[in-house]
Amino acid sequence: MAKTKGFIRILESIVASIILLTTLAFFFNATIEQTNWDDTFLQIRAQDVVASLAINGTISKSVNSNDQTIVNDAIMNPNIMMLPITVDYSLEVDGIPNSVIRIGCNCTNQQVQDLRNLLSPSLTYKERTISIVVYQAEIDKIHNDMSTNVLFLNGYKNLTSFDNKLDIFLKRGGTIFLAGDLSQSQVNDGLINETFGLKWVSASRSDSGVFFDAGNENITSFKISKYYSNITPETSSFTFSGSATIAIDNGTIVKSGSGLSLAKTNKNIIEGGGRTVWLSNGIGDNTNIVNVTKSLIMWASGERFGLNVKSSSPAKYFKTVYLMNDKDPYKVVLALWKVFQ
Q1: Which residue, 63, 277, 317, 319, could crosslink 177 as a Cys pair with Cβ 3.0–4.6 Å?
Q2: What dihedral do alpha carbons 213, 206, 285, 253 form, nearest 10°?
Q3: DSSP character at residue 290
Q4: Chain segment 166-199, per-residue pLDDT in tens
Q5: How would you classify residue 143: left for phi > 0, otherwise alpha for psi between -120 and 50, otherwise beta?
């Protein structure tokens, strides 16, 4: 009998303990720590994928032939399964001219046609065919135009009323190209001088010009002079027209014999994005000026284009950058993200 009572008490204690623990569970939240192994795996996978595509020559072949399907077919090949079916991706090239350069010209129909005849339909750079598309564009709609790389202005325009819309265009990587002579008041209108990085100086001007410090790899003229030498055998000496006296700085592309800028660039204007180009005179008949313009357009493209860019990407993604040593050095940027997150 005593043994039975002892067993019952033990059983009662166990039941009471269970009730107590169950009750306490309502007052204390269980802490579950989530590991980051899935994220780490995805980061490693991104590095492996881009390195594999680079080493086996897939990226180079896709870029130099302007054929996006080559690299995308390799990634999506079901026999290889580079990526899980639950992962999507975006692939970009950064550092060389775009394969297609879209130029919106804010000018008359005849000026659009003249620019199209001058630049279109394509040019060849290191065996790459670079297509150039020219069409008419309105400045007050440029902020909603996601396809235009370059907003081309034929001569001075007062842009102050479009300031906010141009900021949006520049912020997402667009370029404003202004071709034409400028007066001192036009340069100092409050937007041209700041956005284009132009500084008026009192000096005598000569119209003969050469590339500015073209051997300096740290400034933009180095790259543009390289573009020039690879699209034409002509010597790099130019004759401009105009009267603007603009100071030289590291954004200068062509300098005059009197030490002034005849062509000038600016970059990283709005939150690290956006470029501008100023050319002292409009498009002339001088072949050298035409080829300088083409070289500037190549740089103005933004030198960043997609091999597979989604219209939008999620807030959380994993990015890896691979440096390619191809005909020109450039970076390949691969972003991965989970489809369901």
Answers
A1: 277
A2: 20
A3: H
A4: 999 999 999 999 999 999 999 999 999 999 999 9
A5: alpha
Q: Which residues contact 216 (CB under 8 A, 6 or more apart)?
A: 222
Q: Which amino acid is at 198?
A: L
Specify the residue for token string 């059983």.
Answer: 11
226 band by pLDDT with thresholds 50, 70 and 90? very high
Hey, which bits of the chain come out as E strands? 87-94, 100-106, 122-125, 128-136, 150-154, 175-179, 208-211, 237-239, 252-256, 261-270, 273-279, 304-308, 318-325, 329-338
Answer whether residue 26 shows pLDDT above 90.
no
Model confidence, pTM = 0.85
Is the previous residue joined to 121 through a cis bond, with omega within 30 degrees of 0? yes
Pairing of strands 273-279, 175-179: parallel
Cα–Cα nearest to 81, from 43, 54, 52, 39:
52
Q: Tell me, what amino acid is at 219?
A: I
Residue with tokens 């564009």: 137
In residues, how long is the chain? 341
> What residues contact 313, with CB distance under 8 A and at least 6 apart?
90, 335, 337
Token couple for 14: 């166990």
Give the separation between CA 228 and CA 238, rounded to whole angstroms.
Answer: 12
Model pLDDT for residues 131-157, shown as the tens digit of each residue: 999 999 999 999 999 999 999 999 999
- The pair of structure tokens assigned to 69 is 């399907």
> What is the tens place of the pLDDT at every residue in 297-317?
999 999 999 998 665 667 778
